UniProtKB/TrEMBL annotation:
Domain of life assignment: Bacteria
Function: Catalyzes the release of L-lysine from [LysW]-gamma-L-lysine.
One GO process term, biological-process aspect: lysine biosynthetic process via aminoadipic acid
Protein name listed in UniProt: [LysW]-lysine hydrolase
Short name of any one Pfam family annotated for the protein: Peptidase_M20
Cofactor note: Binds 2 Zn(2+) or Co(2+) ions per subunit.
Length: 354
């Protein structure tokens, strides 16, 4: 099957964030072979394709980078193993194949801009940020695993926090907390604040916290400690409000730095795009379901710029993201291609009658 072999070839090319050029060139060559009018690697190393000539502008934006961790690419029964099979080369190849299989009558009414973005797995989101001011879509689909019957309407926001403390050395018998202990106390206070915020809230509406790094140094007569943690923010907690809380809990001796300020996003359930996807899923034999994700994606990056109907869609079980057992079920992959193809046909039909 062409789609499976195309995806397998993409999985066999490592593309850890920042090293996507080789897989982008492979994907571009595939798009050319599939009949795309234009296909190229842009200045951000995104794999770009354009097909169709119609006035309706649709962006299909996935990502082609992966987290580190090699998984031997292999087909075991109906399961295709490989890093990125689910997150998110599988969803991106779904986009490429669905767009390439549209009939000429649809492509006369619609132009599809397919973007395989770089550095989604790191805070830079280089690829998505590069294209936000270069495209003007009417509809956007983000390539992330939702399961072929799932339509993701929203993602939490994110805030990365780096905390530092430097102070003079003193004897360990002294009662004063050392630099590392001050950071521990601060993190415990933030944990208590988050847990108080979460009382009575479901998973999507909770504040999540995760300690990522902790580093201690004692050069000469000084102590130095640094920690990094991130927060996943529900829609009820804007980034700037979270920063106010974090700052209020910090004693003046701590140095705080904030980055990765991704705003939460939740889209409406009833739009021409969601209606088209629901219809496509049903026509393929599925029962559509709406989802809300506790992580972040390039949806958080582009939503403030592209204020149009937007969802995330793609085959795969997101619980396998970043795991050593990451794999994609081939029947699901093929159904997702067909469901998205039918959805794009319906979207063009809706535009033609409006």
């Amino acid at each position: 099957m062409e789609a499976v072999e195309f995806l397998r070839g993409a999985l066999e090319i490592p593309s850890v964030s920042g090293q996507e050029r080789a897989v982008a060139e492979y994907l571009v060559e595939g798009m050319r072979r599939l009949g795309y009018a234009k296909a190229w690697v842009d200045e951000a190393d995104n794999a770009r394709g354009q097909i169709g000539t119609g006035p309706l502008q649709v962006v299909l934006l996935g990502h082609i980078d992966t987290v580190p961790g090699e998984i031997p690419v292999r087909l075991v029964g109906d399961k295709l193993f490989g890093r990125g099979s689910v997150d998110a080369k599988g969803p991106f190849v779904t986009f490429v194949m669905a767009a390439s299989s549209l009939p000429p009558s649809v492509l006369e009414r619609m132009t599809l801009h397919v973007v395989g973005a770089t550095e989604e797995e790191v805070p830079s989101s280089k690829g998505a940020r590069y294209v936000v001011d270069k495209l003007n879509p009417d509809f956007v689909v983000i390539g992330e695993p939702s399961g072929w019957q799932g339509i993701t309407l929203g993602y939490k926001g994110r805030l990365l926090v780096r905390v530092r403390r430097e102070k003079d050395n003193f004897h360990s018998a002294h009662h004063e907390p050392n630099a590392a202990e001050e950071l521990v106390s601060y993190f415990v206070s933030i944990k208590a604040w988050a847990e108080a915020m979460n009382v009575g809230q479901g998973p999507f509406h909770q504040v999540q916290y995760s300690l990522r790094e902790f580093h201690i140094e004692n050069p000469d007569n000084r102590q130095f400690a640094e920690m990094k943690f991130d927060l996943r923010l529900p829609p009820r907690l804007p980034v700037e409000e979270a920063i106010r809380h974090l700052t209020a809990y910090a004693p003046p001796t701590l140095d705080l730095d904030f980055s990765g300020r991704e705003v939460p996003y939740v889209g409406p359930k009833d739009t021409p795009l969601t209606r088209a996807l629901r219809a496509g899923i049903r026509q393929t034999g599925g029962e559509p379901v709406f989802k809300y994700k506790t992580g972040t994606s390039d949806m958080n990056v582009v939503a403030p710029h592209w204020r149009v109907p937007m969802v995330a869609y793609g085959p795969g079980d997101s619980t396998l993201d970043h795991t050593p057992m990451e794999h994609l079920e081939i029947p699901e992959f093929l159904k997702a291609i067909e469901a998205l193809r039918l959805a794009l046909v319906r979207l063009a039909d809706q535009a033609g009658t409006s």
